[in-house]
Every structure is written in C-alpha cells, then in structure tokens.
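Your task:
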Amino acid sequence: MTDAIKKTLRDSAGARWFVLILVSVTMLIAYTFMEVLSPLQTLIQSTYGWSGTDWGLVTGAQGYLNVFAFMLIFSGIVLDKMGIKFTAIGSGLVMILGAIVKYYAFAHNFEMGSAILGIDSRVFVSASGFAIFCVGAEGAGITVSRIIVKWFKGREMALAMGTEMALARLGSFLALFGSPRIADAFSIPTAVLVGTLALCIGLILFIVYCLMDVKLDKQIEDEAEEEEPFKIADLGVIIKSKGFWYIAILCLLFYSAVFPFYKFSSGLMVNKFGIDPSTAGDIPSILPFGTILLTPLFGFIYDKYGKGASIMILGAVLLVIVHTIFYIPSLTATWVAIFAVVLLGIAFSLVPSAMWPSVPKIIPDKQLGSAYALIFYVQNIGLMLVPILLGVVLDKTNPGVNEKTESAILNFRAEGIPANEISAKVQALREAGDIPMFDYSSTWLIFVGLTILATVFGFLLKAEDRKKGYGLELPNIQK
C-alpha cells in the first residue's frame, strides 16, 4: 500500500517515454536548424562569393556568445537555480530569435562589398544570428540532459539518452538531405525560413513538457525539500574532479571531429569525390541513419552490461580510421566516401551513448546542470575554433581560388545573370578547370589529429575510473 502511494508520474513507462519524445523532437528541430546551411557550402560560396574563412566564421559562430560571453556557464547556473521549466522555455525563445536574425541575413539584399566591423555584412549578420541561436540550442541541450536524468535515473537512462541523440541526428539528416532541395527549388533564404518556422513547433513541445513536469514536481515535492539547494560554491566540486575534465576534453575533441565535418563535408564531396553540388549533402546525410539505430542500442548495452569507458574508446578509434580515409588523397571513389560516412555513424553512436550517461556517475545530482553546462562550454570552444581553423587552412592551402571565384561572380552579375543561376555557372568553370577545385587534404589532417587525441583521453578516463571507482564500466540499471 505504501509503495502504491509513493508512485509518481515517472514510474509510468508510458509517461516518461512520452516526455522523452516531446523533448527529443524539439532537439531534432534544433539540430535541423543547426545544419540548415551545412550542405549549401558550395552553393553559398558560388552565390555570394564567400571565402573559406567567411564560411568558417559563420559555422564557428556556435561558440562566440557561449564561450566568450560565458552564456553556457550562465545557462547551467540558471538551470540549477531557476529549474528545468524556466530554462526550457527561455532556450526555446532564444533559438527562435537567433533563427530570425539568420533568416534576415539571407533574405536582405546587402550591397556588394558592404562590411560591418571589417566583415562582409551578410557574413556578420548570419554569424550573429547563428551565435544567438546556439545560446538557445546549447541551453536546450543541457536542459534536455537534465530532464532525462530527472525522469530516467535508475532506469533506462543511457537508452533514453541514446534515443534522444538518435532523433537529434535525424534532424541533421533532414537538413543535409532537404536543405539543398529547398534551396534549389526556391532559394537559400527559404531553406532558412522553413527551419525557423519549425523551431516554433519545438517551443510548443517544450511548453507541453512543462505541464507534465509541474505535475511530477507536485508528486515529488517532499523529496525536493530534503535536497540541499544548489550553491555557486558547488562548482568547485565539478572543477576539482579529474574524471570530469577527462570526459569534458574527450567531448571537445570528439565533437570537434564530427560537427565541423557536417559544415565542410559538402565541399569535400564536391571537390574530392566529384559529387554534384545540388546533391553534395546526400552522402553525409547517411550518417544519422546509423546513429538512429545504433545510439539507442549502445545505450541499452551500457544500461544492461556497462563498459561505458570502453565504448567511448572504441568510438574514438573508429573516428581516427574514418578521418584518415577522408584524408588520403588517392581515395576518391564514391563508395569510399559512403563507407567512411557509415563508419563515422557507428563511431558517432558509440561515444555519446556512453559519455552523457556517465556524467551523473561522476557528479552529484544537484550540480548536474552546471556540469553539463561546463562540458558543453568546453565543447563549444572546439566547435567555435575548429571551423575557423579549417576555413583559414583551406584558404591558405588553396591560394587564388577564392579570388578567381569572386571575379567570376562579379562578371556574371555585370552580365545581368540572375543570382540563382550564378552558382551553376561558377561550378561549370570549376569543372572546366578555369577555377581550380579546392584541395582538402591539409585541412583534413586537423581532423586526424583531433581524433588521435580523443583516443588518448578515452584511455585516461578509463584509468581514472579504475582509480576512483566511478562505475563507468558497470551497468546503469539498478537491480
């Protein structure tokens, strides 16, 4: 009888999995917008004359506010102090605001050659919008992680986190596959607008979740009162943990070798593998399909059998192999690109399925929001700097290509050729050899180095687990 009285909403499998679907679909939409421009790299460079450095500035904007303005740290503190509901709604609104600014960047007809703070106006506004959006998206990410811990701890937590990540990766597929087709049928601004409208649906789903969370909070009110409230001083517990830093740096290195791949993969497919720009996102879009199936599977394995640190190491090793394949200049067959992306999907399933559920084994519950925020903060340093570095290296190792491309665009505009036809004409000049193709081999060495370092930190984490007894190699499901 007593047990029946103590049962709460999260004890119902149907209720907690419905919650998971609500927040997962919101993250799916967020990741769709995150990658909405990724498959359009060649199209945007040919239409607006962006250089590799310009592209890197926009795609690296994920960390400008999150890192330099410490917005991610602030989001974590807000999450621990103000709670899940406040942070969820706030992050949803910020995502929409950033998306609107980014849409304006492409919908507005900027004067050719105009600049803001020495940066091309369209590049500056687009980067600003993406930076604002990413404050909301990363805030949503740490909030969803905290939601899953709240509803699934002691149950199928790794499976739940794996399922959420799998659906988020589906959002990447929708962007990589759908964005070029929308841009081709309508325009680049239309592709951004569709993503912006979808974010409004995501905000509604967060609101529905909050209604369920209110009900759960009433049921566990007594438990909540017993827990000591979060204090800023509690951040010291996180910062002093060596295991935390190993997992944070592994996260930085691993994600820096995956998400920037999305941003530069369409250019690689066009310039190395000879794929048509209008379908350049198709091969990279295969990646999420493996993660959709495998991330929940590996999460289930971690829940039932453990081996979390070993799973992370295996994923990092596979990533070394993947980027080495992409680096080797002589490997240019289409099937090689497909094989490497499939392998990347497996690697991308292994590490996150074990990494995120391992954090609650290292950090106490009341500091989890800040812990996830700090990890996302460290991760964002890589997601900001690596694309910029990639863009600069791409330009430096391909001298004269940007100048010839920009000259061709100006000539076509002077001839009165419509903007939506310029990209195809520039690509024709590339195929004819009048404008050289970009060589990505030096750029890809950066990815190879990142993955090797990620493997090293995977082994360091496993060694620390043996010393401190975090239980990373033990099952998550409590018997």
In short: The chain has one domain: 15-215+229-398+438-468. The radius of gyration is 23 Å.
